[in-house]
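FAQ: What does the model actually see?

It sees only this:
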Amino acid sequence: MSHILRCQALTKSYFLGKREISVLRGVDISVEHGEMLALLGQSGAGKSTLLYLMGLLDQPTGGRIEFDGTDVTDFSNSERASLRHSQIGFVFQFYHLIPELTALQNVKLGKMMLTPPLTYFKNRKAVTRRAEELLEMVGLTERMTHRPNELSGGERQRVAIARALISEPRIILADEPTGNLDTQTAEGVLQILFNLNREQGIGFVLVTHNEELATRCDRTVHLRDGQVVD
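And it is asked to produce this:
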């Protein structure tokens, strides 16, 4: 099995005035095609920072990032955005839905962001159908026209999952996706993620501090003080 995503000797530092703060210190990590990988660690370990680098949302201070065998470390902003929008999905703890838009519109927005306006206009009916299918798949058939403030936390996260799927990503990076949900609601969301992995072969990096959840994944990587410790 080959790597879909691979990081080598990854470092990330920030500066407060003249003081350098090292968040990641030489991280080596890889994700196989179709793998469900748990990234485990306490708050402050560097998990979210690493996820942002893996998702090309930020650039490392040092090291190398490969996507499907191609070195993408020095990609331009436009190249990074193109790869990110077409190959990588994101699910965050706080949903990041647009409050003025309905669930359906929020999902369609994921496609609009990566499609030229004229192309999107020509394909808008197909995009709408696909967004509806995805919302049905995550159990929101009756909630498509509701705005985020009319949805529960679990429903909002399901909308976020559908939005992540509309670009047909090969890997989804999920940062504490059930951190704001009660146990029963969280389990429903997790079942969707595990089903996507098993049935569609989508790879996942699941950031969590929940060791029980990590044991359900294919593999666990422990991060402590900005370093892989296992």
